[in-house]
Amino acid sequence: MGRPLPAPGRLARLLLAALLLVLPLTALPAPLAHAAGDPGSPASTDDRYWTAHRMEAAEPVATKGSSPTPKAAGTPVPPSHPFDGLPQVGTFFWTDGHNIGRFCGGTVVRSPHRNLVVTAGHCLLSPDPKKYLSFVPQYHDGLKPHGIYPVERIYLDQHLYDLGTDGGARWDYAVVQVGPREDGAEVQEVTGGFDLLPYPGYVHHDVRLIGYPGSSDATYPKPLDCSSATHRYTSTDPAAPGDFLEIPCAGYIGGTSGGPFLVPDFRGYALIGVIGGYHTGGDTPDISYSAYFTFDTALLYLHAVRGDTPAAPRPKPTA
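The structure assignment produced for this chain is given below.
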């Protein structure tokens, strides 16, 4: 597999960024109207199912490595600390075939229909049936402070389906279309959203990393917050080729997948990555990774905005 194509020229990058900034303000056909207050609606059903007890018992979709990271002298890893979260950042809940709630983080991004959330692709790649699949913004301590939003469509890049989590690590992101909460409000109307920024560059000195940890050995009722710097990491694993964002932040164990890499911008924050990519986010709790957002990321976002039919696994060839 060849290396990723180089980033386009400065003008093309500026045009692409401008498109993603202006698109949420443009007039597009409205999505289908949703009735508010229907006790049988997906939002009402999911809201009743996801009690505080069930959410607190949720387990991570994948276990991030737990081996301690070798540290070079004089390079301490920035600490993380629990907090009550941000309205735009939350976590997904669903049940699998074992009826166990599992979760990954997600971030509301600005969009014309105000209904898109970005997360890691590997969180939603499994073909196992997912029931009561919903997004809970600013989840903490068993609470749903902004309500619950049922997932309607999941957009994954075809490369991730074709190559899997290692070979397709460069495309380990997903754009998720969520339905309104029980009163008919769309998620971005309630929480606000962040800009999605493709080709952000690899070196950033002020990055905020947020993750929702989970462990079978302890209870983590709050998300983690950390400020650190990112740089470029070129994979040395031939099974997972590519260039990734790398960030040191202590304590990002299993469950933190999908959590955002945020950088300040003129409207608050911009989303430049999500925990995932190289080895589905890393082999240790103190170093995390993200796929690098490119034109493919922007196209996936545009497919979700348009409501196109999502990609899917290709049929296996018959003998």
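Interim note for the steering committee: DSSP finds six helices and 16 strands in the chain. Confidence is low (pLDDT under 50) at residues 1-12.
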